[in-house]
Design a protein that fits this description.
35% of the residues lie in helices and 23% in strands. With 262 residues, it is of the alpha/beta class. Strands 1, 2, 3, 4, 5, 6, 7, 8, 9 and 10 form a ten-stranded mixed β-sheet that branches. α8 packs across α9 (220-229) and α8 (206-218) crosses α10.
């Protein structure tokens, strides 16, 4: 029989989209799946919606998405992991195509990723492409909704819970590369990614800058070209942001594990 895939849906207050995400996971052509929903302290009706479906339901206090995903993995039984955002939609053959590609891939491949098809406010495809460490040092072209080999994910520690400003997926892909794990690209849409309408006014993106500073702090040799292009963009946070004390927080927090309610 084929290998089990754990589809993990972490959610905070996206109840209005959650049913679509869960149903897209349930409607996969790959027969061996389990769906694990983890509620990250939602205050809307998300938990009520999740409990309507034949899935595992976990609940925890709000810890942000990286911690929620790590915590859900503790309950996963699959050989493979797939992370689906609660406002996105899986295409029916996504898991099937990813598993088939993974099974045929060389040993250094630890995850399979593809393209995202935008919908709602924005249309078109996200420009993913073949795996390239050089390009990964310049930009994050890999969607977090990828099929991971569980053993590789656990071996490197999962997401860094300290990347609370974002870029937690980019950091994970860079860390996997530093552990000898590569990705495999499928040139097809794997998910429909909901693009929300952006704010009308643009401000300096402090969170993005802090996340960038954390990436450079962790991997200076890997990101030095990016840093040299805009050194002052990150320098303030490197000097005064206490960056080093808020990263390298891998795996689940043993003091804040979720509880299973279904």
């Amino acid at each position: 029989m084929s290998d089990l895939v754990s589809i993990i849906i972490a959610n905070y207050n996206y109840g209005r989209y959650l049913a679509e995400a869960i149903e897209s996971a349930l409607n996969q052509t790959w027969p061996e799946i389990e769906i694990i929903y983890i509620d990250d302290g939602s205050t809307d009706n998300s938990l009520e919606i999740a409990q309507r479906y034949p899935i595992t339901v976990l609940v925890q206090e709000n810890q942000w998405v990286a911690a929620a995903r790590n915590n859900a993995v503790e309950f996963a039984r699959g050989k493979y992991l797939f992370f689906l955002d609660a406002d996105d939609i899986l295409l029916p053959q996504t898991i099937e195509h990813c598993v088939q590609a993974m099974e045929a891939a060389p040993s250094e491949v630890g995850y399979v990723y593809g393209q995202m098809e935008y919908f709602e406010y924005k249309q078109g495809l996200f420009a993913s492409h073949e795996f390239s460490p050089e390009e990964l040092a310049r930009t994050n072209y890999i969607c977090v909704s990828a099929l991971f080999r569980r053993d590789d994910f656990i071996r490197v520690g999962g997401f860094d819970r300290g990347m609370v400003e974002g870029r937690e997926d980019w950091e994970l892909y860079v860390r996997l590369y530093h552990h000898g794990v590569h990705g495999l690209f499928l040139a097809e849409p794997l998910i429909r990614c909901r693009k929300h309408r952006p704010p009308k006014k643009k401000f300096i993106n402090t969170k993005k800058n802090i996340a960038g500073a954390k990436l450079f702090y962790k991997y200076p040799r890997f990101f030095w070209r990016t840093f040299c292009k805009r050194p002052f963009k990150y320098l303030y946070y490197l000097l005064f942001g206490n960056i080093g004390n808020n990263i390298h927080r891998y795996g689940p927090d043993p003091d804040k594990l979720p509880r299973r309610i279904k």
